[in-house]
Amino acid sequence: MRRVQRACSAAPVNCLVPLTYHPWMHTRRKFLGLLVAGSVASSRVGAAAQLLPATPRQTAGPFYPSDFPLDSDNDLVQVAGRNGIAKGIVSNVYGRIVDVEGRPISGAKVEIWQCDANTRYHHIDDRNPAELDENFQGYGFTASDGDGRYRFRTIKPVKYPGRTPHIHFRVNGARSEELTTQMYVRGEPGNEADRIFRSLGELRERALAEFVASDDDSAELMARYDLVIG
After folding, report:
1. To the nearest whole number, what is the mean pLDDT of the chain?
2. How far apart are CA 25 and CA 70, in angstroms?
3. Based on the domain organization, do 43 and 94 belong to the same domain?
4. Which of 20, 24, 162, 201 has its CA 20 to 30 A from that of 115?
5. Are 103 and 217 part of one and the same domain?
6. In 10 A of CB 106, how many CB atoms?
7. How far is CA 222 from CA 155, 191, 204, in A?
């Protein structure tokens, strides 16, 4: 060590060779290590804070199909083999299926079911005496594309006895958990009286979709409803 000291004393004043080990060197390294660890932890917390809020889960209800209709595509207002159009306001319900990080979920099976404009579900257990609209499919499914997009042509949901207007959704993705939920109409007066809708509490906003006029000349409505699965 003395040789090192002499060599350093003969060297210029900016000699970088340490003469001895000081405890503060260990403390400084430890402090820098804590800074790096804290920075990494902060970045992870920041990333977590940017996660999208998941779509709230809700009951499937009693009318998920026990027997699927022969025609069960994503156009519910025209039934194969029939010439008529379903009663009600034709509406295009569309959106994206993503995870909480905003990544699209492609190839997910997206199902919807709802009552017809006469307030009746196409289900054997629905005892509602209303006439069945044979021109309404009642149930349909599609698959999300590479960007997670989906679309249905259906009717604007109507009140069912004891319930506010709603559409049931179920999503099954290869890399995501199954999501069952219900979509409600923004501005519908009956929402606040609906027990299932009220049960959402602060999550109600995530279950609402606004039905607006189409940009083209058609009389059909448009409603965007994105689903975040997490």
Report:
1. 84
2. 77
3. no
4. 201
5. yes
6. 16
7. 10, 20, 20
Question: For the chain, first and last CA: distance in Å?
Answer: 62
Are 42 and 126 found together in one domain?
A: no
Residue 116 forms part of a structural domain: yes
Q: Check residue 49 and give its pLDDT.
A: 58
Closest by CA to 155, choosing from 124, 121, 117, 104, is 117
Q: Phi/psi at 96 (nearest 5 deg)?
A: -125, 150
Q: What is the pLDDT confidence band of residue 187, given thresholds at 50, 70 and 90?
A: very high
**Do 135 and 193 fall within a single domain?**
yes
What is the number of domains present in the chain? 2
Q: What are phi and psi of 149, to 5 degrees?
A: -85, 150
Q: In angstroms, what CA-CA distances link 37 with 23, 34, 48, 117?
A: 21, 5, 17, 59
- Closest CA relative to residue 79, chosen from 69, 88, 89: 69
Give per-residue pLDDT as tens, 28-45: 454 445 444 444 444 444
Domain of residue 198, residue span: 90-229
Separation CA 148–CA 96 (nearest Å): 5
Which residues have C-beta within 8 Å of that of residue 42, sequence separation ≥ 6?
Answer: none
The number of angstroms, rounded, from the C-alpha of 14 to the middle of its chain's C-alpha atoms is: 61
